[in-house]
């Protein structure tokens, strides 16, 4: 499975994990359809069916690939318009998906599988002599609403009469059909709660993505209107690591148990036990995006298959027992009624309990695998490698090539502990799943080492400060050079003017500050005329 995103990134890792969970559920729905109703689909030949499956898987990936790509693009001020459009369209798409999914789950007419199941069960009852449709008549809706209790009493009476003269296996089959019919109609509180819990992961993932994209859309739109660029300036990537690695002893917080209240001492003890033995929170460690996505898909797989086995336990158990009965009857001269003497209700109940216990144990193994991964990674940061080969024992080409993907069998065969290989110490690198895990582990160690990243972050910040200082000095130097050149030009002009006036004394009277002081005497005739008129005019000489 090739990676279409930065698998070592920590940005939007939970959003990407939600997208992977939705894709895993969609693929599992296809698996459910082809396992239960395989005879209806595998009729065109294996090659055409295989091509069809690849096409369906590709379409499912293309449906949610834009959502995954949105979280990979940079949320900068320059890309604000493109981000607003992407966030808005993705939110509308997800809300429409939620509405259509709710309508599909609530309206039984849209679910062809439930419809075919109801028809199958009613046909089976009709063959047994319980004709439910003929009893209701032509106007079935009003008849059922008016005489609901009478119809239920009649139906229960017919079932009891039929079960009196039936075999033990037929009784179990009728009871199982009634339970399936009850769940298919979804008319009681138990079935509603059951179906709500069954589809809870899908609704959780898609609602989480829709709300997250809506919040991102509103924040980007608000920042665009207010012309603010402050929120786009994110803090350094390793700010939390830098703080915890470089902080002084004066900033350490006291963890004395006597500081806590006695009322919460037991709760504090549980929290301390959880952090010490189950999961310890370390400020300099974060799970990468690929690890979160894979373990989310694995937990979704376990959750879905638990409900899938709960739904199809009776059918699968009966088919398996009939198959074993045929084998035993063929190998040994045993009775043909061997499997009919078994209590299928007890077997189904035991299988359900075993399924729930297996799911619980597998989830615990997944969490222990996460904790072991954290412990191994933190030890690898210090140069300590336990239960994992060092990078010197593996070629660089193998590490780079196998770290780009994970085998899909981790999500298919329930390999909950990916950090162990069933082949043993000598042959563990021949296991493709374990080899991919080790390769990804070493790439993760090299790219996300906290001390290395803090050092790189300090150097990067220092380079940014130097560039800012150089830019500031360059601007000041340019301004100072401009002022100096301007002053030099003025001084040169003044010296040239002084030299010109010294060599040409007749030009001094043409200076602007000398012109008003040089009055030229005017004609006495004109002066007398102006005195008689009552005007006093002094005419300047025109040169």
Automatic annotation (TrEMBL):
**Residue intervals passing through the bilayer:** 12-31, 51-69, 81-100, 202-221, 290-309, 321-339, 351-370
Single annotated GO MF:
retinol transmembrane transporter activity
The identity of this protein, by name, is: Uncharacterized protein
Q: What InterPro entries is this protein classified in?
A: STRA6-like
**Which Pfam family is one of those matched by this entry?**
RBP_receptor
Which keywords does this chain's UniProt record carry?
Membrane, Transmembrane, Transmembrane helix
